[in-house]
Amino acid sequence: MFENLKPQPADKILALMQMYREDPRDQKIDLGVGVYKNAEGITPVMRAVKAAEQRIWQEQETKAYTGLAGDPAYADAMIGLILGTSVPRGNIAAVATPGGTGACRQAFEMIRMANPSARVFVSNPTWPNHLSILNYLGMETVQYCYFNSETRGVDFDGMIADLKTAKAGDVVLLHGCCHNPTGANLNMVQWQEVVKVINELGLVAMIDIAYQGFGDGLEEDAQAARFVASSVKRCLIAASCSKNFGVYRERTGLLMAISDNAEETALNQATLAFLNRQNYSFPPDHGARVVTTILNDNALRADWAAELEEVRLSMLGLRQHLADELQRLSGSDRFGFIAQHRGMFSRLEAAPELVEKLRVEHGIYMVGDSRLNIAGLNATTVPILAKAIVDVGV
What we know:
Layout: H1 12-22, E1 29-30, H2 47-59, H3 72-83, E2 92-98, H4 99-114, E3 120-124, H5 128-136, E4 141-145, H6 156-163, E5 171-175, H7 188-201, E6 204-209, H8 218-231, E7 235-240, E8 252-258, H9 262-279, H10 286-295, H11 298-330, H12 337-340, E9 345-347, H13 352-362, E10 364-365, E11 371-373, H14 381-392
Parallel strand pairs: 1-10, 3-4, 3-5, 5-6, 6-7
Antiparallel strand pairs: 2-8, 7-8, 9-11
Helix pairs in contact: 2-10, 2-11, 3-10, 4-5, 7-8, 11-14, 13-14
């Protein structure tokens, strides 16, 4: 039987990580893997996370299962963080998932159950796992214009034109903030136009929000998700705690299904619990309990928000530093978009051969599509990267 299995394509980012580890050069820079790193190159455990874990260790009396949907307190806390009061709680079904990836997978499974013929419109480009999971599930995808390779901003006219080709029941997958891999985001006027198209054509909105707090602030980064969720009839939201709580390995996510009536919400909740049961039964709890503890304690929440703000401002500072250094070395303002983008990533739109040249000649590792992780830089490596970018002719 197993001899019939076919080799699967290697994960490009994991392969890049392996190449980086095997590179003997001292002066090498990892801008590939999508994790936050501080100036010392460490992905730290946040202060509030350590405090919450200590409290849980002292107070927790059981490791028994919580439920197919996870701890309800976790769902309530995350819904409050992401949606605030923009949608009545009774209109929201929610389940804990193994990270944001698990939330996306369960959302796609739910879409396929509800409407097997639904097409999923995804931005071009998007996070590779979106397309990988959708293709594995055999779901039809349609790419919509998103990134303008010349301006390095959003091709909004192209986006709207493509979305207008969708049919009732199709799904529009949107990035809630800090678009991955481009770093280019819609403004609120543009979000209003997207919602208008969704409502006019009878589409279903799906939002993937994995970087709340990394862009313009916790509340600001939730603004688009809140607007969409409160303005459309049906909406799915896949959320991740990996980045903003730094609990990557704890696999902490949440999937929300929002409807406009109680009967459908109850059906959604039962369906989500069923899907959890078929996939992994009970979702992991430790990371969810840590997040819940932080969000429900005023002191811990304030400390977490303060540290998250330090992270955000650090990335904005690195963006500005890199843009300034590139302008100084190149004598051109063509790299100004780096300072305008938000979140961990920007995409240079460099040709693959130039990305390879950066790796071979300068020890700079970034994904083949020229996505670079801003959080992989520090004050010392920014000038090194800027010089290499100019030297290879990006």
